[in-house]
């Protein structure tokens, strides 16, 4: 199965110059946890609700600052023609839970690790995919403190 078959096509995007405040409003209004940041129509990064909380609340960044400065970079993207397994491998390697999907350098969708796990069609495989990315994305101490 290809990631183009399971991706969400309606990607929520913002321009790199859009304020963090407007990106937060966009996330709230569209009920999403991440926004792909574009510059000249091309994806340059991803900003998550966690990024916003850490920047604005924890670090005291002015909410009028541009989102592009706070987006995760460099962006890691996948191709719509990739197999699910290839997408999972890239997500584990780069420790990411969201993968913007491109086709000929154009943003055509986004896929999350949960999308891939559910579409795997096998509960055991789905749990394994989610666990692999979680282990890759979280610091090692997270697992040691819980005795795993």
Concise structural overview:
The chain is built from seven helices and six strands; from the N terminus they run H-E-H-E-E-H-E-H-E-E-H-H-H. The protein is of the alpha/beta class and 148 residues long. Strand 1 (13-15), helix 2 (20-30) and strand 2 (34-39) form a beta-alpha-beta unit.
Blueprint of the fold:
Blueprint: H1 3-6, E1 13-15, H2 20-30, E2 34-39, E3 42-48, H3 49-58, E4 78-79, H4 84-94, E5 98-103, E6 106-112, H5 113-119, H6 123-137, H7 140-145
Parallel strand pairs: 1-2, 4-5
Antiparallel strand pairs: 2-3, 5-6
Structure keywords:
CBS-domain, 43% helix, 3-stranded mixed beta sheet, alpha/beta, globular, disordered C terminus
Account of the protein in words:
The chain has 148 residues and is α/β, with parallel strands linked by helices. It has a single domain (3-145), classed as CBS-domain (Roll), CATH 3.10.580. 43% of the residues lie in helices and 21% in strands. The strands form 2 sheets. A 3-stranded mixed sheet has the order 1-2-3. The chain has a 3-stranded mixed sheet with strand order 4-5-6. Strand 4 (78-79), helix 4 and strand 5 (98-103) form a beta-alpha-beta unit. Helix 4 packs parallel to helix 6 and helix 5 packs antiparallel against helix 6. The relative contact order is 0.18.
